[in-house]
Amino acid sequence: MAPKFGTSGLRGLVTELKDDLIADYVHAFLCAVESDTLFVGRDLRPSSLHISRVISETAQAAKVDVKDCGALGTPALALSSMAARSPAIMVTGSHIPADRNGLKFYLADGEVSKADEAAINDAYIARVRFAGAAEGNYSKLDAEPPYVRRYTEAFGPRALEGLKIGVYRHSSVARDTMEHVFTGLGAQIVPLAHSDTFIPVDTEAVDPDTRKKLCNWCAEHKLDAIASTDGDADRPMLTDATGKVVPGDILGVLTAKFLGAKSVVTPVSSNDMVRRSPEFEDVRLTRIGSPFVIAEMAEASHTEVVGFEANGGFLLGFEAALEGNLPPLPTRDCILPILAPLVAARQAQLSVAQIVAALPACFTAADRVQDIDPAKAQNFLDDLIGKDEARNAFFAPFGTIASTDMTDGLRVNFESGAVLHLRRSGNAPEFRVYAQAQSEEQALQLVQDAYRHVVRIIL
To answer: 289 and 423 in contact (C-beta within 8 Å)?
Structure first.
């Protein structure tokens, strides 16, 4: 299958991301943005360096000046390119395995919309060629320091004082950045499990082996928390002092509360807790994918608007007043939804687990069926959506259906209050299974049972 746009950029197998295809997409993007400067960044997967070189060489040949930011997190690249009012391309496959990669495109003012993606695709199909008016110069740019200062200046040098935080270094491109931010805020850092081999970590569906390691590290080093991100650092991962992972949509709620947000935008797959929090006056649910979240943020009822996804990627839509000012950053960020809960807990003299426990009781779980046949999985989902008999038969073991929601995939609300949400990934050959229930144990059991039923049908 040829590379295509999903919920977050262009993705495909590395073997399919040929140099000429990359060059064609670079020209298509440059024609869409009409810029004489391009920022380029990359994650740590083995293929990313070569792809970033192809992008740079293509842009230079088109008389576009290139600012090569090297290996750094997606939000750090976006922050620098937006400050310069220039577009950017991030080479990353995010959390998916190293045999896949992709391109994330950024406009001068932030992430591309679905309309922008369509324009880029049209230009790609037409094989357009961009001719810039610059010299085609190449220079390297260290874009990490402004991103680190963004948080050290906003939160202050003592914000995390007294906390001992582990940094799971796997192959997150922001592993050094996290340590610089945390130490700049007064925390003690314990580096954990540095890897020079790319390890795909999905912060939305952390595997059991990793969860066990996190618990063991917390006990061994007497940590207050462990922090990490996915491969390109637009999704956070945070544990409490026991090593238990706090789900991304819970981090989103905690962060929105800490910032004083009044309007909150999040996909339909997020924990219903967001709709039960009295602090939020305007809650809007969207399809999954940051372009949909950003589009709805523009329609929010209040200027104090934020967005977040179930994976924890957080979008700040207003200037927040903290120790210092924190300007807007309308792209998925990993650091803010890690810092805000930690600082909120410290200010309240509570643990991370305690501030999570104080939220409205609503529990979620998620898993993914990997290496699926996309066509077979889509047919299965279409049958559930379009055929009452198929839908009732599949969901009968889980309870009586009260209502359904087809905003993105199929979300089924049961009379018991439980929820099952099924959808095919837009970025990888995966089928996502989300569950929600009145206890953590029920949510985990529900997702496990649904996972087994899905596997039996689509694999």
So the answer is: no
